[in-house]
Structures are given as C-alpha cells and as structure tokens.
Amino acid sequence: MQRTRAIAIAAVEQKARQSRLIVAASLLLLPAALLLLLISP
Q1: CA 31, CA 1: separation in Å to the nearest integer?
Q2: Rounded distance between C-alpha atoms, residue 23 and residue 8, angstroms
C-alpha cells in the first residue's frame, strides 16, 4: 500500500517538474519570439 502511494506521489512530482520546465521554457521563448516578430519587416 505504502509503496504504490510512494510511486503515485513520485509520478505526480515528476509531472509537476515537467510542467514547470515547460512554463519556464515558454517564458524564455515568448519574448524572443516577440522580438523576432518586431524586428522582421
């Protein structure tokens, strides 16, 4: 019982970590994309 709960918690934490990485990457890429749009004629 405790083992399956630990596995479930680990899976949830991994998902949270992945979503945090995606959010951080999008926050970094969004200004760059906007700059490219502004610069391009």
Answers
A1: 46
A2: 23
What are the two backbone dihedrals, phi and then psi, of residue 40, each rounded to the nearest 5 degrees?
-65, 140
CA-nearest of 29, 33, 10 to 21 is: 29
Give this prediction's pTM: 0.60
The Cα–Cα gap between 11 and 27 comes to: 24
Q: Residue 28 is encoded by which pair of tokens?
A: 């970094």
Q: Which long-range contacts (CB under 8 A, 24 or more apart) does 9-17 make?
A: none
The two tokens of residue 1 are 């019982």
pLDDT single digits (tens) 13-29: 999 999 999 999 999 99
